[in-house]
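Tokens in:
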């Protein structure tokens, strides 16, 4: 892509336009739940110009396929994209297949191992399919940044690198910390913000979205667009959603996540496990209910309504979004059944041999405990049941037959032991 020739004439000073009621309404929707909108006055003018010309804004979100599955934390920014999409603007879902080979250093204190091309392609297969559970795929422009990054070549990469100084790159907080601490920073990591910024040039982005940890990279895109003669994009950062623990950001590696392709019953139970205080954070960032409706819920809880009722509504909304209304009803029934000590309908069925089998081995082979020692510890704590009856004998030998094993409140298996 020869950006130097095709993109030089877009940096034309724009006359200040009046802001209509519809523009102000769009601005208010855009700002809901955001951390920052930079620069708001510029974005308002972009909206006004779009309304006047009928040309939709180009709104970009880039995700590197570093893992094959998306979780609710990813949907915070996808929800915002969908809102802007519904307002008539063009949303671009950018899969960073090229930048994945570098590895985003955001928030890292060590060099991220680059992914192989095979890993990237495998992960990318499922990314857009999962994002389409939030976005309208028929109205989404899907792009891969290898389209313009691969053709750059060595000469183009050098020319791009010449547009930014090392001092400016090292202003980035995580680089600064690592540099001062003497922690190695690989040269290829310094290229990452430039490559992400170049994506904005190639796509002629009007607005780029990202998490708060992406702010530096988004600003680099803004500066590079100026260098290439484009009107600079505005940037919108969304808060990072805390995980189920209410402390760390949601992450599969931390085990505090809700995957958007997980079964409805699992999603529902996980969402019901968040604290009453964290529930409001999830409402703000994940719910499509109006702010007035959420404020009413808060008043009702302050007035004595059980917060569990409100949490149920949130869990049902999320399960309905990614599955169906019927799945949400079934998940609620399953959750209530488990709370009463009942056995869920959809439990794994396992066939084992070796009867009579020690309870520790049985629980391990049924994949209900990671080890026999953990299984025996659960027995000791009263967390193991066979057909609803508590097991207290760590030396129990289980005879042949078919029965339901339960560990804790959530783990079940119907076992046939021969």
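Residues out:
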């Amino acid at each position: 892509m020869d950006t130097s020739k095709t993109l030089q004439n877009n940096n034309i000073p724009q006359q200040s336009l009046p802001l209509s009621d519809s523009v102000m309404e769009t601005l208010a929707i855009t700002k809901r739940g955001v951390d920052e909108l930079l620069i708001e006055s510029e974005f308002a003018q972009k909206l006004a110009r779009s309304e006047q010309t009928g040309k939709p804004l180009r709104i970009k979100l880039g995700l590197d396929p570093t893992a094959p599955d998306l979780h609710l934390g990813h949907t915070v920014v996808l929800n915002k994209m969908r809102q802007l999409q519904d307002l008539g603007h063009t949303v671009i879902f950018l899969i960073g297949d090229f930048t994945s080979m570098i590895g985003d250093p955001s928030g890292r204190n060590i060099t991220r191992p680059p992914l192989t091309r095979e890993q990237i392609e495998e992960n990318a297969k499922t990314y857009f399919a999962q994002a389409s559970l939030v976005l309208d795929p028929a109205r989404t422009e899907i792009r891969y940044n290898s389209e313009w990054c691969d053709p750059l070549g060595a000469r183009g990469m050098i020319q791009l690198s010449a547009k930014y100084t090392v001092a400016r790159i090292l202003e980035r907080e995580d680089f600064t910390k690592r540099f001062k601490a003497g922690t190695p920073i690989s040269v290829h990591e310094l290229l990452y913000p430039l490559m992400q910024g170049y994506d904005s040039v190639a796509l002629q982005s009007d607005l780029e979205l990202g998490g708060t940890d992406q702010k530096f990279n988004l600003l680099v895109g803004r500066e590079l667009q100026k260098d290439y003669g484009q009107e600079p994009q505005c940037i919108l950062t969304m808060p990072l959603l805390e995980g189920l623990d209410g402390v760390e950001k949601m992450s599969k590696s931390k085990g505090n996540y809700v995957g958007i392709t997980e079964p409805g019953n699992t999603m529902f139970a996980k969402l019901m496990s968040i604290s009453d205080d964290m529930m409001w954070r999830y409402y703000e960032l994940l719910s499509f209910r109006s702010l007035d409706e959420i404020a009413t819920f808060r008043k009702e809880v302050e007035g004595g309504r059980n917060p569990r009722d409100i949490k149920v509504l949130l869990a049902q909304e999320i399960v309905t979004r990614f599955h169906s209304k019927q799945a949400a009803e079934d998940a609620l029934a399953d959750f209530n059944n488990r709370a009463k000590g009942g056995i869920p309908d959809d439990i794994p069925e396992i066939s084992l041999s070796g009867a009579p089998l020690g309870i520790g081995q049985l629980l391990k082979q049924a994949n209900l405990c990671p080890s026999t020692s953990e299984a025996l510890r659960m027995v000791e704590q009263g967390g193991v049941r066979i057909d609803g009856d508590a097991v207290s004998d760590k030396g129990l030998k289980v005879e042949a037959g078919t029965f339901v094993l339960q560990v804790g409140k959530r783990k079940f298996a119907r076992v046939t032991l021969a």
